[in-house]
């Protein structure tokens, strides 16, 4: 197993272990040894660490049985629950011990993380009792990825466990989510919240609502008309905004550390009102960043360029600081793309995607990685998706509820006893974030022609993993 990586990133490899006997089951202990630097035997490597997980096979309503949750030995449900929800639960319930049926297999997820590692070669051994050992060779190149400021949102909180939780659960929740590059947290970082913990350990930007509740609900439902707004409305909104600014200042936040939303996914019937209320916020304090995520969903698609432009052009460019249109609005809509691409604090887009996160089809796994490439190709500094963790009912069962309701779970991680249990989709988010960092590094190094060539190759359909290797080698050579 060969991995090439920068001095500060995470790379993953899937490995299958198969029982070659057609008659006898096998019980094996699987383990990943610690990394040593090649040429310096018996000395543990500083800065290179590995982690081994095992993949659970979980049924889904629309995609059959797929490899979904990736379990660590210290973060998996009890054995009876493993067998209840996973078709291979009996095989992996005691991981790192696995029981393989005749000709049966298990899939493992090998993760390698470099943390300021010295350039050079490192190796470790992936072993299974009674089977063939595999050498894991890691090449760390002399490249350090930058951490460009990005707006990366998932419109959800974290997993939970009720009623009893481990004392380090919040720390593990925040650490994993931040390792994916996610920067947006709901609410101001009030003491004791996960938002506050995230702010202590990484870059954050905090989401709040910029108007009182009656304007959120009335605006979303289209029950308020712009021409009906009064001086009393302006005064109420100004008071609300001043309260937000005061509390954010008390918490040590600058204006760049938080932003105000009015309501979710404005469309044709309420966008002009959104603009009018945004204007009132701008008047109350022009330094407050205003967010908008236009959707314009109608039936089985989005409205055309002229219809969207008609209700956004009067106000969007002047009153939106964090622009996050639905990704479908970026296709063949030159008028609104002029609005969406105008210079501002954040230009981003979002997808509603995680209803398909239980599929193991490559396009639905790689989508989260490609979002970062799409943002970079546009010259934008943000992207997002719904959702990291928003189950509807039991997150472990895709078959709960009525088939007629067909209410999918919007999740890409599962709730473990010690914190989130990743999937290949969640790991793909990190891959995209690190790709964005690498492309930003090439840009900072002045390699404009190489960056343009890589972006062009991406648009032409070349595999992103091959382009990532090309970008990494270009960074080494420069």
Q: Would you kindly provide a written description of the structure presented here, covering whatever features stand out?
A:
By secondary structure, this protein is of the alpha/beta class. Helices cover 32% and strands 24% of the residues. The chain is built from 14 helices and 25 strands. It has helices spanning 79-85, 89-92, 169-179, 194-201, 213-220, 231-250, 271-284, 305-312, 316-319, 334-340, 362-378, 424-444, 448-459, 464-477; strands at residues 2-5, 10-18, 26-32, 36-37, 48-60, 64-71, 97-100, 105-114, 120-128, 134-140, 151-153, 184-186, 205-209, 258-261, 291-292, 297-298, 301-302, 322-323, 346-347, 350-352, 382-386, 389-390, 410-411, 414-416, 419-421. The strands form 8 sheets. Strands 1, 3, 4, 7, 9 and 10 form a 6-stranded mixed sheet that branches. It has a 4-stranded antiparallel sheet with strand order 2-8-5-6. Strands 11-21-20 form a 3-stranded parallel sheet, with helices on one face. Helix 11 runs parallel beside helix 12 (424-444) and helix 13 (448-459) runs antiparallel to helix 14. The chain is globular and about 80 Å long. The relative contact order is 0.13.
Compact summary:
By secondary structure, the chain is α/β, with parallel strands linked by helices.
Features:
single chain, about 475 residues, alpha/beta, 6-stranded mixed beta sheet, 14 helices, 25 strands, globular
| Helical stretch tally | 14
Beta-strand percent range: 15-25%
Distance between the termini: 27 Å
Show unreliable segments: none
Number of strands: 25
Percent helix range: 25-40%
Shape: globular
- Looking at the chains present, what oligomeric state does this protein adopt? single chain
* Structural class assignment: alpha/beta
Radius of gyration: 24 Å
Tell me, rounded to a whole number, the average pLDDT.
95
Major sheet attributes: 6 strands, mixed
């Amino acid at each position: 197993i060969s991995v090439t990586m920068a001095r500060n990133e995470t790379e993953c490899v899937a490995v299958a272990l198969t029982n070659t006997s057609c008659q006898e089951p096998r019980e094996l202990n699987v383990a990943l040894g610690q990394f040593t630097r090649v040429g310096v035997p018996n000395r543990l490597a500083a800065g290179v660490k590995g982690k081994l997980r095992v993949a659970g096979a979980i049924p889904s309503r629309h995609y059959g049985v797929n490899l979904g949750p990736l379990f660590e030995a210290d973060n998996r449900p009890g054995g009876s629950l493993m067998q209840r929800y996973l078709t291979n639960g009996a095989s992996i319930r005691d991981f790192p011990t696995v029981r393989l049926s005749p000709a049966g297999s298990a899939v493992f997820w090998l993760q390698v993380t470099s943390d300021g590692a010295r350039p050079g070669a490192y190796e470790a051994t992936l072993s299974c009792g009674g089977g063939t050992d595999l050498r894991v060779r890691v090449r760390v190149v002399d490249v350090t990825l930058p951490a460009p400021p990005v707006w990366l949102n998932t419109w959800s909180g974290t997993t939970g466990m009720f009623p009893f939780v481990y004392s380090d659960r919040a720390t593990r929740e925040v650490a994993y989510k931040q390792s994916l590059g996610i920067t947006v947290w709901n609410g101001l970082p009030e003491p004791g919240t996960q938002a506050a913990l995230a702010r202590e350990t990484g870059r954050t930007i905090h989401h709040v609502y910029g108007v009182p509740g009656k304007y959120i609900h009335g605006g979303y439902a289209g029950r308020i008309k712009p021409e009906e707004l009064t001086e009393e409305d302006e005064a109420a909104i100004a008071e609300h905004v001043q309260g937000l600014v005061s509390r954010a200042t008390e918490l040590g936040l600058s204006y760049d550390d938080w932003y105000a939303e009015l309501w979710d996914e404005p469309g044709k019937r309420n966008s002009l009102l959104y603009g009018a209320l945004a204007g009132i916020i701008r008047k109350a304090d022009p330094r407050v960043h205003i967010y908008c995520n236009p959707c314009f969903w109608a039936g089985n698609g989005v409205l055309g360029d002229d219809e969207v432009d008609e209700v956004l052009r009067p106000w969007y460019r002047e009153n939106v600081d964090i622009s996050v249109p639905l990704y479908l609005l970026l296709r063949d809509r030159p008028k609104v793309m002029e609005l969406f691409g105008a210079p501002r604090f954040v230009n981003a887009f979002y997808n509603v995607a995680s209803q398909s996160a239980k599929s193991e089809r490559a396009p639905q796994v790689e989508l989260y990685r490609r979002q970062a490439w799409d943002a970079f190709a546009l010259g934008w500094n943000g992207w997002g998706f719904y959702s990291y963790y928003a189950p509807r009912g039991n997150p472990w069962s895709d078959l709960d509820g009525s088939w007629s309701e067909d209410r999918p779970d919007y999740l890409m991680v599962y709730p473990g006893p010690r914190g989130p249990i990743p999937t290949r989709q969640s790991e793909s988010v990190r891959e995209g974030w690190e790709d964005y960092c690498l492309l930003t590094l090439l840009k900072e190094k002045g390699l404009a022609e190489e960056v343009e060539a890589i972006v062009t190759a991406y648009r032409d359909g070349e595999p992103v993993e091959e382009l990532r290797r090309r970008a990494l080698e270009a960074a080494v050579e420069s």
